[in-house]
Specification:
Helix 7 packs antiparallel against helix 8 (275-285). 32% of the residues lie in helices and 24% in strands. 47% of the residues are buried. It has 439 residues and is α+β, with helices and mostly antiparallel strands.
Length: 439
């Protein structure tokens, strides 16, 4: 997954290949002052302005025909405060650089998503999350934000300073300003033991409440057209470190999960009738394994097979019903789905437009191999998710608008009122925000 930090021939493309944009100009500020002056200049020229990270959103949330801000020079750690247990990092820092830098300092985030290519600001602004019984999304670990607002001023917020902005801007969708730095909670580095094992879907659903309650981090992948899942349980461990053996790691993470999986998807795309048979083989290819390592090596894994994705957050108590309905829909349809469905959880948080805002949450992510028609599957899945008051992930494909979102987010009006105050002229507007927030 290379990062997308520049446009080619004036055209910017996202990682999933779902979005194209032609910005009028591109700017790569190297300081918060340069960023503020780029925003002021955009205003003088009457142009909208958007920051773009590595392009890992499948929606057009970062697209603009105005001024495109590339944050790749706004990188690195500004400050580590061991007493407070925080790190302050420039917004354009890739998560993988943050994770390795923290590990060298003997520190770690408490929880993270399953890839680490994205920038810190891009990941948090769209609500990137992993799975956790007690620990929530990356944004929920934010303790302070520095934000360049529409008039080019720099606004600092935390629980104590500008708390109304802090409540919303941790997952700000790029609508409130451009994040220039983030202060995150960190803790002394720890070990996690991961237990990965196949399990029948019926058993996972029957025992879901226990699996969720008994593990700090539980997730599973269900393979459509089969009754099989692969489960993963991550829990803190006293050690010793027992990383995945390099050869086995290459075989399972690179060869099977990326190389062979890519080839199988090529076959499935060319001959859809082969997909159920491939799914049965794929779902049995990965055997059980247990390993112990530092957090980012357990939480994250490489994803080289390109796909498109839709993910919805439903109330945790609605998960089993929602997934059973999804399976029944796939079983009775002519759809051929070669990618597993990923299920994770998060505790309720207090961020205005977080997908877990105010409710314990389960996430269901559906994927299709890039280049295969995904609309039929995603439309049918979305119908099921929205029947359970699902909230779409801000960076993944969905068709929801402000009318729907204002019904499933109790604090939606609070966010739009803040946006009216911070960006009355809609300097940070684009088509995606017009749809999800209203104009």
């Amino acid at each position: 997954m290379g990062s997308t930090t520049s446009t080619r021939n004036g055209t910017w493309r996202n990682w999933g290949g779902t979005v194209l944009a032609r910005p009028a100009r591109e700017v790569a500020p190297a300081s918060v002052e340069e960023l503020a002056s780029a925003v002021r200049r955009a205003a003088e020229d009457g142009l909208p302005v958007k920051a773009v990270g590595t392009g890992h959103s499948f929606t057009s949330i970062a697209a603009t025909d105005g001024v495109q801000i590339h944050p790749h020079l706004l990188t690195g750690i500004r400050d580590i405060d061991r007493a407070a247990g925080t790190v302050t990092v420039e917004a354009g820092t890739p998560l993988k650089r943050l994770n390795t830098a923290l590990a060298r300092e003997g520190l770690s985030l408490t929880n993270m998503g399953d890839i680490m290519e994205q920038t810190v600001a891009g990941a948090t602004s769209t609500g990137t999350h992993g799975t956790g019984r007690d620990s929530a999304s990356v944004a929920a670990q934010i303790r302070g934000l520095e934000l360049v607002t529409a008039d080019g001023s720099v606004l600092v917020c935390s629980e104590k300073e500008n708390p109304d902005v802090f409540a919303a801007a941790r997952i700000g969708l790029g609508a409130l300003g451009i994040v220039s730095a983030i202060t995150c909670a960190v803790e002394p580095i720890f070990l996690l033991t991961a237990r990965e094992e196949p399990m029948p879907l019926d058993r996972v659903l029957a025992e879901f409440d226990e699996l969720h309650a008994e593990n700090e981090h539980f997730e599973f992948y269900w393979f459509p057209h089969t009754g099989n899942t692969n489960t993963k349980r991550n829990n803190r461990s006293a050690g010793p470190e027992r990383p995945v053996h390099p050869v086995r790691g290459w075989l399972e993470d690179e060869f099977l999960s990326n190389g062979v999986f890519q080839a199988a998807n090529w076959v499935g795309r060319a001959v859809p009738a082969t997909v159920p048979a491939i799914a049965r083989i794929s779902s049995r290819a990965l055997s059980a394994r247990t390993y112990t390592d530092i957090p980012y090596k357990v939480f994250t894994s490489p994803r080289r097979v390109r796909f498109v994705e839709m993910e919805y957050a439903v109330p945790r108590e609605a998960l089993v019903d929602t997934l059973r309905e999804l399976k029944a829909m796939v079983d009775r349809s002519p759809l051929r789905v070669s990618f597993p469905v990923e299920v994770r959880t998060a505790p309720a948080d207090d961020i205005t437009l977080s997908t877990a805002s105010g409710r314990d949450t389960a996430y269901i992510a559906v994927h299709m191999f890039r280049g295969t028609p995904y609309q039929g599957y995603f439309t049918a899945a979305e119908r099921i998710f929205t029947a359970h008051e699902g909230r779409p992930h801000w960076g993944k494909i969905n068709t929801r608008d402000a009318d729907y979102l204002s019904r499933v987010y109790p604090r939606f009006a609070e966010f739009t009122a803040l946006r009216d105050r911070l960006d009355p002229e809609r300097r940070f507007q684009n088509d995606c925000l017009r749809r999800v927030l209203g104009s």
